[in-house]
Amino acid sequence: MEMTGERRIEAPRETVWRALNDPDVLRQSIPGCETVERVGDDSFQARVAVKLGPMAARFTGKVQLTNINPPASYTIGGEGNGGAMGFAKGGADVSLEELSATETLLKYVVKAQVGGKMAQLGARLIDSTAKQMADQFFDRFAALVSAPAPAVAAEGVRPSEVAALPPGTRPTPAPGTLVGDATPEERLGAATLAGAGLVEHAGGTPPGTTYDDVAGRPNIPATPAHPVPVNLMALAPTEIFGLPLTFWIGGVIWLLLLAVLFLNG
User: What is each CA distance from 171 to 181, 215, 217, in whole angstroms?
Assistant: First the structure.
């Protein structure tokens, strides 16, 4: 069996080369692979479960790398034993061509031979299964290698300073402080001051503000209190003994009138 192909990978050639020599990446890329272990600088040992038509087997084998020319090419050779199912042996020439700083062309030429019960299934079934597994391998491999690296904050920048905000929003810094240094209480206080018109813009401070010598944070001066007029009528009761105040005022007026009439008569 012989098979050739190529695949464009959205990653630098150095990155693709390291991935081809990374046991964990290989384990995730090979269909049915259970384990891949490095047993030497240029050799690996793997265990792969394979289903070929009506047959299924678990192959264990060792892979040897030769003609190593980093990061351009190498040759893979090995043999796997599937027990009663038979064996598989062969090799592959793999080369990496740098298309650009962020794109690599991977080319391969595979030659393999199978024996035992697997050979009785016919070359057409074996070839189609091998091509399907190769496509799955390179699809997974390209997806792993091309995956974007996790975002890392710039040196000296705290996560609170690079946290994502909803579109169209801006952080409200506390007066006199950086956004990353402000506590939630300080941000709430700054927003309250801005809403009350005590600061001209976010991050400003009202006139007369002093700063703490230790923390360097602003001490917002208290708003001067203004005298409030006292309404004496608001202190008067509205009822006496369950009767409205107007009743008692009217009664007092009638008593005064009767007293005046009595004294003049």
Answer: 12, 21, 18
CB 101 within 8 A of CB 16: no
**Collapsed DSSP state (helix, strand, coil) of residue 147:** coil
Cβ contact 104:11 at 8 Å? yes
Distance linking the first and last C-alpha atoms of the chain: 143
CA–CA distances in Å: residue 166 to residues 147, 158, 206: 25, 19, 29
Residue type for 44, please? F
Task: Fill in the DSSP letter of residue 177.
Answer: S
Alpha carbon separation from 98 to 10, 55, 103 (Å, rounded): 11, 40, 7
User: 169-196: per-residue pLDDT in tens?
Assistant: 555 555 555 555 556 665 665 555 555 5
Give the residue among 150, 149, 133, 153 at the shortest CA–CA distance from 141.
133
pTM over 0.85: no
Q: What are phi and psi of 69, to 5 degrees?
A: -135, 75
Return the closest-CA partner of residue 21 out of 96, 90, 89: 96
- CB-based contacts of 70, cutoff 8 Å, min separation 6: 17
Q: Cα separation of 94 and 65, whole Å?
A: 10
Distance, in Å, from the CA atom of 189 to the CA atom of 183, rounded to the nearest integer, reads: 10
Phi, psi of 36 (to 5 degrees): -140, 120
Cα–Cα distance measured from residue 41 to residue 140, given in angstroms and rounded to the nearest whole number: 24
CB 245 within 8 A of CB 237: yes
Residue 100: pLDDT above 50? yes
